[in-house]
Amino acid sequence: MRNNEENELYMVKQAQSLRKRDPCAAKAWIITAKTLYPAAFNVQYEAYLFERDGKNYEEAAKCFSVIATNFPNQHTELWQEINALTNALRNESENTPEQEFFVKMYKHLTPDVQHNIFMHTINHCGDDLEQCICIYILMFKKFPKSVTTHAPRLLELLAEGMTTDPDLYQRILVEDVLPMIQHKPPELPPVLACRLYTNSLEYYLRQIMDSESEPTDPWKTIFKVLMLCGQMMGWEPFLPFSKQGSQNVYWEKLVDILSASPPGSSKVLFYATTLFIYSLHGYIRNCRLRIDDADVSHVLVEGFIEWAPDGDGSEDQTMEPPKFSLTTPISPDLSNAFLHAAQCWQLLNTDQFQRDFSQLMVALPLAPWISRFLFDLAIYFGHRDEANKLMGEMTTQSSLVQSLQILSLNLMQGSMTLQGFQCILKIIGELPATNGHLLENMTLKGHRHMVFLPLTRAALVQYCTGAIISRISRQVYEPNCSDRLLGDLLVLQQLNLLNDLRLTQQIFSVIKQRKSFNLRILSTYIIGIDLIEELSHIWNSQVEDSNFELTGSPTGVSSGGPASAGAPARRIGTRGADKGARDEFKTITRQQIARCNENIITLLANFITQEQLMLAQHIFGIQPVETIEIK
């Protein structure tokens, strides 16, 4: 035996010594050795090396097949070659010349040898989980039929890997493995299939949140993965994703599945969770809209309810959820997404799903979305205490948004606090650069409603103005309301004339009934033509025993600033008015009409800032003083 080994080694060394200077002689030694010792690894391996170094990939493949078939588990040298071969196959697009040789040699191996190479490699990966998974994937690419047999084990390994490096193995699962098994998904234990879906969903959600530009159709792919995992567990299929489809269709399908499923069904849990996150994403995404070439956020706030002294259109005190006002083109999409998310949230927080759903929410990267949604949900249902608590837990908000939300909570409770009024002043002081447009349907009759308010100058000033009007407008129907309150309401109503004609008519009705009325702010803040025409009519129709006074800027003095700025204002009235007073009134009205194209948003923002002390007196019931210093 020893002589045989010595002879083998002698022949191999002879071949090695002659390989470079006399390849023919070297090959003769190898052929002789193979003939005498066909079962010797050293001889067969040297024959392979001779062909490999000579770049004879076809002959090298024959020699490699002999070694791989007859000596699969015995020699380190063989595993080094197998590793080099599999590495070359994994990186075919970026191969070196040496690796290119292995790729060509592989093509000349028989299919059985090719497959055995992969299986032997998998079985000897040891603790190298990443390499084992990569070899499985490579084998599936080369032998698609092997997916049916080996996919369950690969998926188990991926689930194991996600406990140590979730980013890596989630990416491998989603980008490499799931596309391979989608046409013939294996049967999996429900726990494993649900875990894999959760990890896939987490991967896509991180992509959405980390990317400024969203991946192409992420929800189309997510719904495909949901259907695939459902097939693995034998679930009734959900609906495929469609951008054009109404979310009502998904909800109706979920209700049908729920009615036919046992309590706490995993199928309902995952279908409802997916629909919830889809609706939530649509809501959060649509809360930002492109306006005037800028990204503008929308904030859910309390709408205004038109009040009437006779009870017609009074505030609705029923427990029904509020409506959504169609204030902007995006309002329908926002409200639909929000309502569907709310429906799913309520279902998933019932006793049968709450524990499992809570665990899913911890596992998925949804905290920023969830905190925003829960706050809006509390506002929607009128849960003020819960909303205040949630606001304290939201740390990523701007001071502008926070001030707006505090103001909205004030309006929800039906009375404005000093904090709420301070929020109005903060909002006016932090107005954004984007102008935007005035909104419709901010004030409605008869029932509570919600508004998706864009953070633009126009919408914010309109909301602050509406908040002040909603708090002080009832005083118009009270006896002895002050002239100053009536005048300030007229200023504020310049944004709201068409939406609240009843209030404007009541203001003018009170003015006409008074024997004496003093409008001190005409030349500074009233530029609406309709208001000026009505004031002119009142001036011209005054009877002898009544007096209508107004304060105007002297001729030639700019009327663009507050009344106390610049030269002293002149007070003129109807009682005993001569031609000079009438001419002075005409001059003032012409001045105001000439200003009708001024920016009403800027004017009212200035009014709220400069007249804040008087407005606070109106809101909080303090007796107004004769003069107010404008700062």
Can you tell me about this structure?
- Belongs to the Integrator subunit 10 family.
- This is Integrator complex subunit 10.
- The protein is an alpha/beta fold.
- The chain has three domains: 1-211, no CATH class; 245-307 and 322-464, no CATH class; 478-548 and 578-623.
- The protein is 61% helix and 6% strand.
- It is built from 28 helices and nine strands.
- The strands form three sheets. A four-stranded mixed sheet has the order 1-2-6-4. The chain has a three-stranded mixed sheet with strand order 7-8-9. A two-stranded parallel ribbon has the order 3-5.
- A hairpin with a 2-residue loop joins β1 (288-291) and β2.
- α4 (57-70) packs across α6 (97-107), α10 crosses α11 and α17 packs antiparallel against α18.
- The chain starts with a helix and ends in an 11-residue tail after the last helix.
- Mean pLDDT is 85; it is low at 553-568 and 624-631.
Helix percent reads 55-70%
Biggest sheet, spatial arrangement of strands? 1-2-6-4
Number of strands: 9
Radius of gyration: 40 Å
Which consecutive residue ranges, at least 5 long each, have pLDDT under 50? 553-568, 624-631
Rounded mean pLDDT score: 85
**How many angstroms does the end-to-end distance come to?**
111 Å
Oligomeric nature of the chains: single chain
Give the structural class. alpha/beta
Give the tally of structural domains: 3
| Tertiary shape | elongated
Number of distinct helices: 28
Q: β content, as a range?
A: 5-15%
Largest sheet entry: 4 strands, mixed
